[in-house]
Amino acid sequence: KTVKQRLAETLLYLEESFGTNDDNSLKIQLSREELAGMIGTATESCIRLLSELNKKELITITGKKITILQKNKLKSIS
Asked: Three-state DSSP class for 59?
């Protein structure tokens, strides 16, 4: 799988495993470095891909909080 596919899959997995807060953000908050480690890529690549998903309005990022907006599109990427 590509890095983008692994990132999408990991975000969906984190939501499934840990759930979401009242504001729909992921309950678990990971640093960009930790997330990059989970998907096996450089931190810079992870940040770039998160920004790309944010621009496409599939997710929103507020500080360390990540909110999945379009689960189906993320599933199709993964």
From this structure: strand
Any idea which residue has 């939501």 for tokens? 15
d(CA 13, CA 5): 12
Residue whose pair of structure tokens reads 């975000």 in the numeric block: 11
Tokens 């990991």 correspond to 10
DSSP 3-state helix, strand, coil percentages of the chain (rounded to 5)?
A: 55, 15, 30
Share of the chain above pLDDT 70, in %: 100
- Mean pLDDT estimate for the chain: 96
Q: Give the residue among 10, 55, 57, 49 at the shortest CA–CA distance from 30.
A: 10
- Dihedral sign for Cα atoms in the order 25, 37, 9, 70: positive
Return the DSSP state at 24.
Answer: S
